[in-house]
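Re: the multi-chain job from yesterday

Posting the exact lines I submitted so nobody has to dig through the queue logs.
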Amino acid sequence: MADAMLKVRNLTVKYGEKVAVSGLSFNINGGEIYGLLGPNGAGKTSTIKAILGLVKYTGEIDILGLGPPSSKVMNSIGAAMETPALLEALTPREFIEFVGSVRGLFDQKRVDALIDAFELREYMDVPIASLSAGNRQKVAVISALMHRPKILLLDEPFNALDVKSVRILKELILRHIDEGGAVLFSTHIMEVAEKICTRIGIISAGRIIVEGTLDEIEKQANAGNLEDAFLKTIHADEQIKSLLEGL
Amino acid sequence: MYSVRKVASIVYKELLFQGYTASRLSGMRPANARSALRASRLNKVILSITYSGILAAMSIISYIMGKPFSSSLEAFVWSYFMITVSSINMSFATQQSGYIRDLLFMLSVNESDFSRISMLSFFMTMDFPVYSALIVTALISLYFGGFPYAFIGSVQGIALGIATSSAFVFVGSKGASRPRLRSIFRVISVLPLLIVIMFSSYVMQISPSTINHVFSLLPITSTFFGGEGVVYSVVTVIYTIIFIGLGVLLFLKASALILSTQEIYISTRSRAIQGFKIRSSIGAILRVDMIQSLRSRIAGIWALPLGYLIAAIASAFSNGSYIASNTFMFIISYPLNLGVMLSFLPYALYLSEIRGAIAFRLLPISPIKNLMSKEVIAILAYYVAETPMMMLLIAYRASALSLFPLLLGFGPLFASTAFMAIFFERTVKEGGALSTLYTIVYGIVTLIIEAIPLGSFIVMYILMHSYIYPSFVMLGISLAEAAIMMVPLSKK
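And the result, structure tokens for all chains:
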């Protein structure tokens, strides 16, 4: 896999004694959407944070053949975190100006188109701290997409977004891979993963337990859809049945 | 049936927790809510005991030294400080307390009890400091007899402290609709305290007979003259009554806001399509730092140079010959001291970044590039603050060579800013919060970094009686320190 845009080998993330990610390995090639699925606390966010260099880790991460995460590769990455990484004292306009200035990559036409697509225009001069969760997420998504990065790292990117914005974001992700980009995205919404992921890794307790295309995963779990396959894979299907009986 | 007092104490706890969380410079929620709450409540008690002790000690020293009038200023400063520090978090809590009202409403708490609940819960944030300051100063005034300088000073400090905290609640409750008003208020609100604190170090050197009598008509300083005659006493009492009235009025207004329906910000400004202004990378970081610092609770730090300047001018005004006859002491007391104090500025800028640290990390900003923007702000602030000091030296005909330490005195600030960058990187890596021990060590190291060049300047001046060479040595040592700090930063 010499042409992989993102390579992760034996990634381990620890918070004190707690092991959040344990020996994770995967590659993502250009034109691929890799979905990281897992229950809460499985290690999805920690994996993305490690790839961004936001937490201490051991193992190897190679981004676009340029080595581990550093300020040098950040212009090639667009990231939207589960809790939007924004500067709350700023307005969306000030934040987008800041991001564009620091990156030295600013396409006014694209930014305007993104603002209109996500219907953020009327909130451009309102402090981010005062925005709703959905509008904050839109600011984070716009700042992740505005510089046309090669790799998108999206941690639960559809959180709090309205139906229209979810559709637009899905289309933008698909367009991104059509142009040769790579996407790593984490979610626990199976329907979304089912529709857009080219490859899926199911993560539990910090380890990838199954990896493959949607068909491969469904076949392996002997399930008719991703949700059933996921629940079977993490051995939660029987547990749910017995829990529901007790209610 | 519920008890208003019990409900108020629960509301107080929730406000305390929200205020504590919102007031953390890192902006991050405490990992352990229970211990954070315990710490907040314990802080109030420790703060009351500590500052009452200082207040008592300073007031007693004033009486023993035969300068009872100066106890009024000591009592004022420490009482004011205690009240504002213990209740200021309330202003942060009110920015997000709307849900408490909704919850109480859903729990069938009578709306007519809301004002009593909010008044009681607000007062609970400052009850200990108020009681301890009043008891300590009343006892001191009774023991030493005569005009009750300490007690009057404390009453004035408490009244203005309550007024300031209430004003903070008022401005805080305005939510997002008045960001500029909030920024301006944050900056100017610390100004009176800064002036008084700086003036208090000078007050022991003076007496009502030697200082300008204009001070007898001014608020706060009029108390110096309270024991000098009936007219002066009346002026002091009038000011005290005005302060109490102001404190009570603002307290009532503020407490009404604590559990009021939150103002929802709906902008009515026309939404013309505006363009974006793209800047250089460092220029953009610099601008964001300025915006973040002015819109956060650290905004008051910008008033620091102004406070020092006013204190320096006040000391010159009351005793102008001091500057001309003792230029070296003046330089150490005001301009160089100001340079050290300004190191709070980059510290505050870095801390205001911690909350948005992830946003910074997702951008191509190296630690060195980030540091450069802080250095630019620090040096700009230094020269803006020092220029009037230089003018003061020139106006009082001090030697032209005495300007050298001021011109080159940015070095210690430059070096300590570089160390702050290391502290910041470490803090971010640790998730935004460092242990108390590490923070203390950081404080000590910062002091050492600044003390080495400043100490070298003082020692060399004493040995050489020259300003030029010691100033260059001070700068050289500082730049060497900064270069050492930058080595680990450049590797990140």
